[in-house]
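Input chain follows. Return structure tokens only.
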Amino acid sequence: MKIAVLGAGGVGGYFGARLAAHGNDVTFIARGAHAAAMRANGLRIRTAAGDVHVQPVQLHEDPLRTGLVDIVLVAVKMYDLEATAEIIKPLMNIDTAVVPLENGVEATTILEQRLGRRYVCGGVAYIAAGIEAPGVIRHTGGMARLLFGERHANDSWRLDTLQAACQGAGIDATLSPAIATEIWRKFLFLAPFAASTCAARGPIRLVREDPARWSEFEAMVAEAAAVAQAQGVGLPEGIVEERLGFAQGLPGEMRSSMLHDLEAGRRLELDWLTGAVVRLGEKVGVATPASLEVYENLAPFRLGTPAPAT
């Protein structure tokens, strides 16, 4: 099985390296300083689960050099996804499975519109990881889990193969028959988590310890659930309480990737997280006042903060 990984950051770098280290044919499509370091020194994963060093790394900047692949794991930021669809097209054969691992709930729709529904599956990644230095991924915490599934079919030999490859590489991977629900299950937590930690300018502990911030967090989870239900997503009973319990059980110092981006002055995925709750809520007639307030407070930073002049 031939796998292409688009985006070699925390998500794509970690899972791609694990797959490559266990003999799978993995090609990364990346560029910039991180890609240059990978080409020169390999890709290192630093994690309590056991460090990994992949060298040499199969890496291309031009997808036309990669050839056709069986699986495309897409792990770019949501604001790059539309452009990434054009990079994916030269990689696809008639049975290629494209598995987006983005934050948010709109990745599959965006890709289906550009690639066709036959090719696009659903995917969810649970992991706290990021680029520590060019060529180095730091995985924090014990969570590193993938879920994926077909959106328009009852079974999937191509994802059965991906699951077998993941399990052989020691990756906790589940082939889900209800991937749309799983995507929203994560989103119900992630959008409020990202927004709340950014608003607090600190880890989830600051949100949990402040009654006003925690109340706001609870309201945002409930709003996201109401939007999902209005769209016909089959969420399980008690999902709001379950997601709040999940947030309560996180390590106190856990920070969202969007907070890391905010602190570094980078562009935010705000429009595809909290902004999506507001936007989709308007489409289905669900009020989202808590999400709207936090979105508006963070909106001035959504395109990034330029470095101060020297």
